[in-house]
Amino acid sequence: MKVLVAVKRVIDYNVRVRVRADGSGVETANVKFSMNPFDEIAVEEAVRLKEAGATAEIIVVSIGPAQAQETLRSALAMGADRAILIQTEDAVEPLAVAKLLTAVARREGVELAIIGKQAIDDDANQTGQMLAALLDWPQGTFASKLVLEDGRAVVTREIDGGLETVSLALPAVITTDLRLNAPRYASLPNIMKAKKKPLDILTPADFGVDVSPRLVTLKVEAPRQRKAGVKVADAAQLFDKLKHEAKVI
Ligand code: AMP
């Protein structure tokens, strides 16, 4: 069984994101980029399934600039078998990403797509759901556990107030939540091996997908600065401050 894993190149989660002075977006010059953390979890899960003998080949796909090759190489170093970069300099919205992933899934004949629940740059949380709709496959979103058995995927989902377990007929789309696994660090020998693994570079036009944006960003603003908090000595002082300063009681 072939597995498709989508990996997005995003500003590293440790970077303090700065908004451009003209409010047109965030500063990306001289900023560290890495694999979207939820996609690392997706790669790890696919590698674990392969190690358990449940799947045969892991294809990682990224849509983005030439530098996204580094992101794909990181996924190959973690254990993916081959990579596809769909190269574009334009910002690609979730619907266009889902259309491209659909085209790859069909072309490659994959039976399982594992992708992040959300990209930490746009926080859209849309691509997996759109992918499932376009492929007409069942979806198990926000997965904290995944078991493949008897041609089905049993997915434990993190939902408000608890866990839900669903059983999906394959082929299916899974989106990863934080507790699914702890991604491995690639070893040096595996980083070296990854340099020789196949990485194809294509374009959206090769799949006949129009990636022109449907949304216009009007303005990007940094969150308002909050005043620093204070420590109170005891409950009486807290009560006094809530009553006379905050005037909430
Ligand atoms: P989003 O719907 O934008 O929050 O993204 C959800 C997931 O879709 C991400 O965690 C990735 O697995 C995948 N994805 C989104 N954009 C891209 C991209 N440009 N390249 C590869 N995968 C992507």
Write the layout of secondary structure elements.
Blueprint: E1 2-6, E2 9-11, E3 33-35, H1 37-51, E4 57-64, H2 68-78, E5 82-87, H3 94-108, E6 112-116, H4 127-135, E7 139-149, E8 152-159, E9 162-169, E10 172-176, H5 188-194, E11 199-202, H6 235-244
Parallel strand pairs: 1-4, 1-6, 4-5, 5-11, 6-10, 7-10
Antiparallel strand pairs: 2-3, 7-8, 8-9
Bound molecules: adenosine monophosphate (AMP).
Question: What does the overall shape look like?
Answer: globular
Flag low-confidence runs.
none
Q: CATH fold name, please?
A: Rossmann fold
Provide the spatial order of strands within the biggest beta sheet: 9-8-7-10-6-1-4-5-11
Q: Output the structural class.
A: alpha/beta
CATH class: Alpha Beta
CATH level-two architecture: 3-Layer(aba) Sandwich
Whole-number total of structural domains: 1
Strand-and-helix sequence, N→C?
EEEHEHEHEHEEEEHEH
Question: What is the CA-based Rg, rounded?
Answer: 21 Å
| Number of distinct beta strands | 11
Tell me what portion of residues adopts beta-strand conformation.
25-35%
How far from one another are the termini?
A: 61 Å
Mean pLDDT: 96
Hetero compounds: adenosine monophosphate
Largest sheet: 9 strands, mixed
Our count of helices gives 6
- Percent helix among the residues? 25-40%
